[in-house]
Amino acid sequence: MEWRALQLGPAAFGHLIGGKSAGYFDHRVVSGYQVGFGYSDEFSREYQGELGRLSNMSNIFRTVFALLSMLALPARAEVERGQVVDGNLFTIIAPTYNSARNLSYIRFFNTNPDAASTFSITVVGSPSGQSYGTTTVAAPKNASIQLSLTDILSRANAAALNSGDTNYSIYMRNPDTFSAWQHVLFNDQNRFFENVTICQFFSGALHTRVIPIVGNMHTSRIGGYPSEITVHNYTNATRSYVANVFDSTTGASLGSVPLSVGANTTARLSTDSIEQQLNFVPSASQFHMNVKLGDASSPTELTAVIGHNVINQEFNAALNMTAWCRVKP
Predict the structure, then answer these.
(1) C-alpha span between 170 and 183 (Å, rounded)
(2) Is the Cα dihedral 161, 163, 164, 167 positive or negative?
């Protein structure tokens, strides 16, 4: 009687019960190796019914499998490609859009009334996780800088998508607790746009600081898309608010507009109304203004719900542009 192990892998295992055989008896996977055992028809006839000898063969099988379990190497697993950038450290803007039809615009708002602020950006590929480059965006106090994704990629010297990537993501940080951001999608063909901001809520974030702000409110230089601020006084008494207005690019003050709102009432403040009350005529390059709402009756708390809508006059539709998010430090 002669036995042989088939497809064991390391040659040493093939000699444990060496020799040759015919007829396939068993086939299984043990610790990542395909294992086959054979026996001859002659052996079957010669030793049929000899239970003692079969018991010995059973012992051999158990011994071989025990050795394989202890010595055989594990099966090769798929190696997962590690991520280059640890997203836990950043605010994430994803997905983004970078085509002739749909293009992402990121707005970097420094709501700090006293100092400039710098946003640090890493451009990351999806799904590879590789970094395509880094850049920074400096925003003066009270300013909101708007950049297209094309502009950001150029600043970061980002290469074209490669290594199977299909999309860019923006990973962002800013140690200033007054920093905020917004993601806007614009279609250059049908002139449609919307706020596609997705906020991340994290421990220690001062989200109350983005409640009283209206960033990138349209001036009359953007025809067909006037902006409107809504202010709802949820208290049971008339409140006196003030709208502090700033140039969105430079952060320069344009003046203040008072607003009295009755109890449980919603008031509206349009682009035209603000410009008329301030005697403000925007220049050819002044497309946006920032507004910070204050409550004269409660300096430490804004007792109102603030909204920002842009009216698409062609479709007679209101686009909600209210949401802004905090940036991880």
Answers:
(1) 11
(2) negative
Spatial contact of 137 and 119, defined as CB atoms under 8 Å apart: yes
The secondary element (H helix, E strand) that includes residue 228 is strand 227-233
pLDDT digits over 188-203, tens only? 888 888 999 998 877 6
| Of 325, 304, 326, 177, the residue nearest 242 (C-alpha) | 304
Give phi and psi for 134, each to the nearest 5: -135, 160
φ/ψ of 183, rounded to 5, equals: -120, 120
Q: Which amino acid is at 37?
A: F
Q: Report d(CA 144, CA 139) in Å as an integer.
A: 7
- For the whole prediction, is pTM greater than 0.90? no
Residue position matching structure tokens 């970094």 = 131
E strand or H helix at 153: helix 149-155
User: Which amino acid, residue 216?
Assistant: N
C-alpha span between 135 and 145 (Å, rounded):
14
For 268-323, how does the pLDDT look when each residue is reduced to its tens digit (9 = 90+)?
999 999 999 999 999 999 999 999 998 877 766 788 999 999 999 988 999 999 99
Quote the tokens at residue 73. Answer: 């190497």
Q: What is the residue extent of each domain of the chain?
A: 5-71, 87-326
List Cβ neighbours of 188 (8 Å cut-off, separation of 6 or more).
Answer: 100, 101, 103
> Distance between CA atoms of 254 and 248, rounded to whole angstroms?
10
Residues 6+ apart with CB under 8 A from 203: none
